TrEMBL record:
One GO MF term attached to the UniProt entry: biuret amidohydrolase activity
Keyword annotations from UniProtKB, A to Z: Hydrolase
The organism of origin for this protein: Variovorax paradoxus
Entry annotated with the keyword Hydrolase: yes
Annotated protein name in UniProt: Biuret hydrolase
Taxonomy of the source species: Bacteria, Pseudomonadati, Pseudomonadota, Betaproteobacteria, Burkholderiales
Gene it is expressed from: atzE3
Top-level taxon: Bacteria
């Protein structure tokens, strides 16, 4: 399946045209592979827009999708819920949507998500759950919370899936669907027009089919140019953190990760194994509930009082945990985080990027975590496993990219390349080289 970069070059060479590419994307979007992917489609509007598109623009009239928590002018912003389905229409596009449109992208629809973005599993009891694109035989979870956005990219219904990442909501579904997900440093992309989960941790970012497309999407969303040199892998000093990230890892994930490291070493990468004892501090730092619970409760408390019965019970349960946090506990959390970030940044300063499994498991069957109280224990166990690794980078205020690293024919496994804040260009540079090496194996 071609990525955006290759398709755009084909457009400029006259090998295809934007209308043909749009019809192809819409055809996939309407197929069974995209069942439950969209909460609202914009196909007729997309056809009108693509007819006026400019091939020389950065996105050349190609399709992108937007997670259901982004404002689109003239539409309500339900965020995967039913309690906001009749909310007032947005008066303008979210900044991120507007930037993708201005770059020549054509929006084909709003994508399904975990209600209010509060889970890494991707299950939605209101709109159904889109099946992972990697396994036609067994419906598997897509990962969340940007579930529909991931499947839209993985199936070929879109070249860019706009989403958000608060604890892994871009990287988890990217890893489980075998695509690329880049979480930038949060402050680089405006969040205006995106319904919040945690104002401290939320990051607006995207999923794509390749690292070079991730660079393009980030440059558009952040309105900046990435400086990613063409140095070989051997020019970078890389680390693997051995504690926490590998706890509870599935054999298939461990095998894929180890094989990926060997491939990178064979390509010249210098990789050192290190311990990061600061990770053991996170449980105590977040003991009073963490940012997501407190900040989501502040936003949802009145809506819960009015319409709590309409919430996904699992989501409501997590939001309500924020009701007990005291003001001094929240302020202590802010200070503890800043001190922890400083210690971790110092420990990682000798390295250009860190390598870890994005998540320690492959995608389980939807049936094992489908809505129902009898499956709640398994749902929350899986959710905790999925969120554990990527959420560390959100707590660090860092940047990270998930890159597929499984062998052909195996369920997708994500290799996460990451670092502290504002190391985005270095992470992307290493990821470009790592992707080239892994594609040759």
């Amino acid at each position: 399946m071609n990525d955006l970069h290759a398709t755009r070059l084909n457009l400029l060479a006259g090998g295809t045209d934007a209308c043909t590419e749009m019809e192809h994307a819409i055809g996939i979007a309407q197929s069974p592979a995209c069942s439950h992917v969209f909460t609202r489609t914009l196909f007729d509007e997309a056809r009108r827009q693509v007819a006026r598109s400019v091939p020389q623009s950065r996105l050349a009239g190609l399709a992108f999708t937007a997670k259901d928590l982004f404002d689109i002018e003239g539409q309500p912003t339900p965020a995967g819920s039913v309690v906001l389905s009749h909310a007032p229409a947005a008066k303008a596009d979210a900044v991120s949507v507007a930037r993708l449109r201005a770059a020549g992208g054509v929006l084909t629809g709003r994508t399904n998500m975990t209600e209010f973005a509060f889970s890494g599993v991707g299950v939605n009891p209101h709109h159904g759950t889109p099946a992972n694109a990697s396994d036609a035989a067994t419906p598997r979870i897509p990962g969340g919370s940007s579930s529909g956005a991931a499947v839209s990219v993985a199936t070929g219904a879109a070249f860019i899936g706009l989403g958000s990442d608060t604890g892994g909501s871009i990287r988890i579904p990217a890893a489980l669907n075998g695509i690329v997900g880049f979480k930038s440093t949060a402050r680089l992309v405006p969040t205006e027009g995106a319904l919040p989960l945690s104002t401290t941790l939320d990051t607006v970012c995207a999923m794509t089919r390749s690292v070079r497309d991730a660079v393009t999407a980030h440059e558009i969303l952040a309105a900046r140019r990435v400086t990613a040199g063409a140095a070989a892998l051997g020019a970078y000093r890389l680390a693997v953190v051995k504690n926490v990230f590998f706890d509870g890892i599935e054999p298939a994930v461990a095998r894929a990760f180890d094989n990926a490291l060997q491939t990178l070493r064979d390509a010249g990468a210098r990789i050192e194994e290190i311990q990061l004892p600061e990770l053991a501090e996170l449980q105590a730092i977040n003991a009073t509930g963490g940012f997501s619970a407190a900040e989501s409760y502040a936003w949802h408390r009145l809506l819960l009082e009015r319409s709590g019965a309409g919430y996904d019970p699992r989501v409501a349960q997590r939001i309500l945990k924020g009701a007990t946090m005291k003001a001094h506990e929240y302020i202590d959390l802010l200070h503890a985080r800043q001190a922890w970030i400083a210690r971790v940044e110092a420990a990682l300063s000798p390295f250009d990027a860190v390598l870890s499994p994005t998540v320690p498991i492959t995608a389980p069957a939807i049936a094992s975590v489908a809505p129902g109280a009898e499956r709640d224990d398994e749902f929350f166990r899986i959710n905790a496993l999925l969120l554990r690794n990527p959420s560390i980078i959100n707590m660090l205020d860092g940047c990270a990219l998930s890159l597929p690293c499984q062998a052909v024919g195996e369920l997708p496994v994500g290799l996460m390349l990451w670092h502290a804040s504002l190391h985005d260009d270095a992470v992307l540079a290493v990821a470009l080289q790592a992707e080239r090496a892994l594609q040759k194996q």
